[in-house]
Design a protein that fits this description.
The complex is a heterotrimer. By secondary structure, chain A is of the alpha+beta class. Chain A is built from 16 helices and 16 strands. The longest helix of chain A has 20 residues, at 245-264. Chain B has 16 helices and eleven strands. Chain B has helices at residues 9-17, 23-41, 51-63, 106-113, 156-163, 180-186, 220-230, 248-254, 279-294, 307-325, 346-357, 360-373, 379-402, 425-429, 436-441, 471-489, and strands at 44-47, 75-79, 117-122, 169-173, 189-192, 213-217, 265-269, 298-302, 405-409, 445-452, 459-465. The chains are: A alpha+beta, B alpha/beta, C mainly alpha. Bound molecules: magnesium ion (MG) and zinc ion (ZN).
């Protein structure tokens, strides 16, 4: 690994340079089949099983467009405020790489299905920032390479590589922004908020799982700096492998600091792809862009133009869900959160989680409490997005167990840990770990009797009006029950006892 | 029994239907013929070991009273460009040597479903790039009329197999004339259907927007019967047409009725009968025009100025598409792998494999196509070529407003000696001058025997072209003209082909011949 | 005369991943020059007002229903592979990175 690059202080970098960012976000569509073949759109299973001759690029095989993917792409284009092209076309992007079965990617080059739109992104302070979208186009994913030998599965130093084509041909929509100017010091936060907004839009449309940690949503961040007062854009780098909202934010901040240090010394930025390393919090140089990047695009002769009718576009437009901005306004009113509470939830990127938890039966207040409290704390500690830890439906189940009195908050936190550790559903974790609240009064009374035996004056004190004396007994009972008792019920029973 | 091999597919089919002969007998007769002559002709790359078993099962189904297709039990040869379960499919290239696909091309699946009996795979120029079959990685095919001459290409194997009576029918593919030009130089019949009439699924792609699968036979009716089997919409090929096609066999039979050429407007394309054409070809074409006139056809000379540019456009579009289509041959998922001495990165392995696995013409066209698509040249070359394509289509559509059918010689020359043009790519490319415009426009074309050239006694062919989707016209007028020729000559052309010396070896029933 | 140079042919061979020998490069440089000279005339008639034709028979909106069909078995998928590890295709070390 190269020597640690010099970084400029962030505030100083912003004083000297204006950051310009841009994003290429790939969204994996959740269709039943692939973009150009009728193989199941699934991967992660047994390698090289979800494939047809088309996905393997076997001689003689031919692609056929998935009509559902086209509809999803149009819906997404409309949700991004784009115009839908009366005619769009697939093209071949030619380059050799072993994960690319045909050694060309079928993509849309100069005739994308959707073009020129914009996305309203809410910044952490609640202000709106308009991100200009250049295009959204359809394409296919590549297979998956595993590098064997050398260090830790990296491509460098590997002895050989293995290819699984299950992911080859998975339908993607790539959303490309224009260069985004004006975010200034908040460019990193804008990046995270933009990607989160895209996630909310595609989840709202129901066209993708949109889980960054699973690669359903992938972001390449383009970053360049230009000296204050200069018109011409600087040379940009394209950072790949940013797999969470916080990584987007960190990677942009890092690149701004790294590029500023180089430029301030009179150096030049190399136009290249860079890789984000979550562990070190740095980017490393990848492939330089050069004249060798001649993709020899030409119209895909095996496919025909896509010419959606106005009726279809109208139909899909009418079926669009509300935009994230409108949805936020509605949710804030429905949930009854204070401005601060709502902003916290939003900034933590947890709106969708709370929506889904509420949809699964929880109250907004308890959903908020758990997502912004315990789950956010665990996510922070693990340096991952909270949404990656637990499914909203699982949290709702946990909350239901608390509401029915079967779990205390304290027990629930232990159950949550078990769920995150993959031990099963909340009910299963309760069962396996034996974490149920002791709701049998007989067992509680026996424990109370035992505690009273060693503190005989307590009942007397209570009768004298010193109710706080019950605390010692409650504490002893809770301890005896290993915390699996409802403290409120124990208190009730102790007081009943004093009345007797 | 040897007479079985001289029957047309239609006549053999009726003998099979009447159970006068069995499919096993017919198939065995052809396998014997292959064993006897293919050592000299080299039409086959692989002979189907399961052919007799397939024939037997057809006979059994017929005996059980099952209703079978019209051609059930008739043997057929399959160009090696088509994927076949159970038989290697190499497209004439070393890079695919021994590759057995896990699926059948749709045309092959239809042929099997109709009860035809695949005899084996036929030789071809590597990846169908060529006009002589000399660019096959497995050695050239020899023209049955003169074994020192080329059989045309790229489908020289299919044409020679039919001309040498090794099969009554064959499947071919035609990207710029690869069915029609071999037909012309071997005295046989071949049809390039309307683009999209026959599925391309499972045909190893050369140039996707030009390729079309079609029938090869010794009579027009036989091609029509085979076209009827393989035509129709295929959801696996996006460019496949949804049209309801008429019976092409009925169309061919209609052509045999008296007066079927009366009043038909026939256009002679000036640009497709020029100075570079062999004298004997021009003489036979003039005879054909005279015959048509005598039969009541109305002949007009027409001009298609864009055709002057067609061959140039073709040699940009084809290599461009081919350079991309052939990128999949990279040694990762199938086919040859060549590792440089001392190992190498995957990039080096791919480059070494493609260096050794591809022949000279394939490399030439891949490099040319890569050039035509590369940054800075696209507009001048590929972009312009696609505009020429528009002009060619406009010329055709203007001409077909005036005439019912266009005619030209199928090829500018008769079969040339093996080796004569192998080092002169430009001369080789000119062989397809007459056939290329139909591919650029997607229209159907048919070649049928036109007589022997005086100077060398070798076959010439006449090409008929019709508007897109009007393949039936080709069969009607083609069958009429074929009948006219044969009644004038007093025999079929193929009956004048030299009888090949049959070697004494017994029937080869499997393996590479 | 054509502008095709030896360096250009080398570059094209790199793009096309063919390890041409020096002799082949020399030969192709000459041949390609001749071929390009003879076909470059397409640009003479390709005026701006002529639209490009990429498909011989115009069609559009050819789509497939989103319904799962038959897949290859792992055995079928690997059957033609020069090298595999039983479940995946095996290739030697990769120099470049994905695009
Ligand atoms: Mg990109
Ligand atoms: Zn992309």
């Amino acid at each position: 690994m190269a020597a640690r690059p010099e970084l400029m202080d962030y505030d100083k970098a912003l004083e000297m340079f204006e950051p310009v960012v841009g994003f290429e976000v790939h969204v994996e569509l959740s269709t039943a089949t692939k973009m150009f073949s009728d193989a199941p759109n699934e991967f992660g299973g047994e390698p090289n099983t979800n494939i047809t001759p088309v996905d393997l690029g076997l001689p003689g095989s031919l692609p056929v467009v998935n009509g559902q993917a086209v509809k999803y792409a149009i819906s997404l284009g409309l949700a991004l405020g784009c115009s839908i092209a009366p005619t769009s076309r697939f093209a071949r992007k030619n380059y050799f790489y072993p994960d690319l079965a045909k050694n060309y990617q079928i993509s849309q080059s100069d005739e994308p299905i959707a073009f020129e739109g914009s996305v309203e992104v809410e910044m952490p302070d609640g202000t709106l920032f308009t991100v200009p979208v250049e295009r959204a186009h359809m394409e296919e994913d590549a297979g998956k390479l595993t590098h064997v030998g050398g260090s830790t599965g990296r491509i460098q130093g590997a002895e050989y590589s293995l290819v699984d084509y299950n992911r080859a041909g998975v339908p993607l929509v790539e959303i490309v922004t224009h260069p985004i100017i004006g975010a200034e010091a908040l460019a990193p936060e804008l990046g995270a908020a933009y990607v989160e907004t895209i996630r909310d839009i595609v989840r709202g449309l129901g066209i993708s799982e949109a889980r960054m940690e699973r690669g359903n949503l992938r972001c390449d961040a383009n970053i360049s700096l230009r000296p204050r007062g200069q018109e011409k854009l600087g040379t940009r780098t394209e950072t790949k492998n940013v797999n969470s909202f916080r990584a987007v934010e960190r990677a942009i901040r890092y690149e701004i600091q790294r590029q500023a240090a180089i430029l301030a010394k009179g150096g030049t930025i190399t136009q290249e792809t860079r890789h984000w390393h979550e562990d070190t919090g740095r980017t490393s140089a990848g492939r330089p862009k050069s004249d060798a990047d001649d993709y020899r695009y030409f119209p895909e002769p095996d496919l025909l133009p896509v010419e959606p009718s106005l009726e279809l576009i109208q139909e899909l437009r009418a079926a669009l869900p509300e935009s994230p901005a409108v949805m936020r306004r509605r949710l804030k009113a429905q949930w009854g959160f204070t401005d601060l509470e709502f902003q916290d939830v939003k900034n933590a990127g947890l709106l969708t989680e709370i929506v889904e938890t509420v949809a699964a039966g929880s109250t907004p207040a308890s959903a908020r409490k758990w997502w912004t409290g315990e789950i956010a704390r665990l996510a922070n500690a693990a340096e991952v997005d909270a949404s990656s830890l637990v499914e909203p439906s699982q949290l709702a189940e946990l909350i239901a167990l608390i509401d029915s009195g079967e779990l205390t908050d304290r027990l629930a936190r232990q159950v949550l840990e078990g769920v995150i550790a993959g031990e099963g559903t909340p009910a299963e974790v309760v069962e396996k770990r034996g974490l149920k609240v002791v709701s049998d009064d007989g067992a509680l009374i026996a424990a109370i009797d035992e505690a009273l035996a060693s503190q005989p004056d307590v009942l007397e004190k209570i009768r004298d009006g010193k109710v706080q004396a019950a605390g010692a007994v409650i504490g002893a009972v809770m301890k005896a029950m290993k915390g699996q008792a409802d403290a409120a019920r124990v208190r009730e029973l102790v007081l009943e006892r004093a009345q007797a | 029994m040897t007479d079985l091999i001289h029957l047309s597919a239609a006549d053999l089919a009726s003998k099979l239907q009447s159970r006068e002969v069995s499919s096993v007998e017919a198939t065995k007769a052809h396998l014997d013929r292959i064993a006897g002559v293919d050592g000299d002709v080299h039409a086959f790359l692989h002979v189907n070991a399961g052919a007799l078993a397939t024939a037997k099962s057809i006979d059994e189904r017929r005996a059980a009273g099952e209703t079978l297709g019209e051609l059930a039990g008739v043997p057929i040869a399959v160009k090696d460009v088509l994927c076949t379960i159970g038989m290697p499919s190499t497209s004439g290239s070393k890079i695919l040597e021994g590759w057995i696909p896990p699926y059948d091309a749709t045309a092959v699946a239809k042929v099997r479903a109709a009860g035809l009996v695949p005899l084996g795979k036929t030789n071809m120029d590597e990846f169908a790039m060529g006009s002589s079959t000399e660019f096959s990685a497995y050695g050239p095919t020899h023209n049955p009329w003169n074994l020192d001459r080329i059989p045309g290409g790229s489908g020289g194997g299919s044409a020679a197999a039919v001309a040498a009576f090794e099969a009554p029918l064959a499947l071919g593919s035609d990207t710029g004339g690869s069915i029609r030009q071999p037909g012309a130089v071997t005295g046989t019949v071949g049809v390039k259907p309307t683009y999209g009439s026959v599925s391309r699924y499972g045909a190893i792609a050369l140039a996707s927007s030009l390729d079309q699968i079609g029938p090869v036979s010794r009579t027009v009716l036989d091609s029509a019967l085979l076209h009827d089997v393989i035509k129709g919409h295929d959801p696996r090929d996006s460019t496949s047409l949804r049209d309801e096609w008429p019976s092409f066999a009925d169309a061919a039979r209609a052509g045999l009725a008296p007066g079927s050429l009366q009043g038909v407007k026939v256009g002679i394309v000036r640009e497709l009968n020029g100075d570079g054409f062999q004298a004997g070809v021009k003489a036979r074409f003039a005879d054909a025009v005279a015959l048509l006139t005598a039969a009541g056809a109305e002949i007009v000379e027409v001009s298609a100025p864009s055709f002057e540019y067609a061959i140039s456009a073709y040699y940009l579009i084809l290599p461009a598409e081919a350079s991309s289509n052939l990128a999949k041959f990279d040694s990762v998922r199938f086919g040859l792998r060549v590792t440089p001495e001392g190992g190498g990165t995957v990039e080096q392995v791919m480059a070494a494999t493609r260096e050794q696995g591809f022949g000279p013409e394939v490399k030439r066209r891949i490099i040319l196509g890569t050039y035509a698509l590369s940054a800075g040249y696209y507009d001048a070359y590929y972009g312009s070529a696609q505009k020429v394509r528009t002009l060619v289509q406009r010329d055709f559509s203007r001409l077909f407003d005036e005439v019912d059918v266009l005619i030209s010689p199928s090829a500018p020359t008769t079969a040339f000696p093996i080796g004569e043009k192998i080092d002169d790519p430009l001369a080789m490319y000119l062989n397809d001058l007459t056939t290329i415009p139909a591919n650029l426009a997607g229209i159907p074309g048919l070649s049928l025997p036109m007589g022997l050239a005086d100077e060398d006694g070798l076959p010439t062919g006449i090409q008929l072209m019709a508007p897109a989707r009007e393949d039936a016209r080709l069969y009607t007028y083609g069958a009429a003209l074929e009948q006219l020729f044969e009644s004038t000559w007093g025999h079929t052309l193929i009956s004048k082909a030299p009888s090949l010396s049959v070697s004494e070896q017994s029937a080869a029933t499997e393996g590479v011949v | 005369m054509s502008e095709i140079t030896r360096e250009q042919v080398e570059h094209l061979a790199g793009l096309a991943r063919i390890a041409l020998t020096p002799d082949e490069i020399d030969k192709l440089t000459g041949e390609l020059g001749h071929i390009v000279d003879s076909i470059a005339k397409v640009s003479e008639v390709a005026n701006a007002d002529v639209p490009a034709t990429s498909h011989p028979i115009p069609l559009s909106n050819v789509f497939r229903d989103d319904v799962v069909g038959e897949t290859l078995t792992q055995e079928q998928a690997l059957a033609g592979a020069p090298e595999h590890d039983g479940t995946r295709f095996k290739v030697s070390a990769i120099l470049g990175e994905e695009q």
